[in-house]
Amino acid sequence: MSETEIFDEMWGRDGCLREPYRAFHAWFEGEDPKRLRAKQREAEELFRLTGITFNVYGKAEAEERLIPFDIIPRIISGPEWARLSRGIEQRVRAINAFLHDIYHKQEIVKAGRIPEEMIRRNDAFLPHMIGVEPPGGVYTHIVGIDLVRTGPGEFYVLEDNARTPSGVSYMLENRETMLRMFPELFSRIRVRPVQTYPFELRRSLAASAPGCAAGDPVVAVLTPGIYNSAYFEHAFLADQMGVELVEGHDLRVVDGRVAMRTTRGYKPIDVLYRRVDDDFLDPLNFNPESTLGVPGIMDVYRAGGITIANAPGTGIADDKAIYSYMPEIVEFYTGERPLLQNVQTWRCSEPDALAHVLDNLGDLVVKEVHGSGGYGMLIGPTASRKEIAAFRRKLRARPGNYIAQPTLSLSTVPVFTRAGLVPRHVDLRPFVLVSPGSINVTPGGLTRVALKKGSLVVNSSQGGGTKDTWVLED
Amino acid sequence: MQIEIHHSTRYRFAEPVTFALQQIRKTPKSTPHQTVLDWTTEITGGAKQLAFEDHHNNVVELVSLERDTREVAVLSRGLVALEDNHGIVGRHRGPAPLWLYRRHTPRTQPGAGVREMVRGVQGETTLDWLHALSGQIRAAIAYEVGASHPGWGAEEAIAAGRGVCQDHAHVFIACARLAEIPARYVSGYLLLDDRPGQDAMHAWVEAHVEGLGWVGFDVSNGIAPDTRYVRVATGLDYADAAPVSGMRIGGAAEALDVRIDVSQQ
Question: C-alpha distances in angstroms, A432 versus A144, A227, A441?
Answer without folding.
Answer: 6, 27, 4
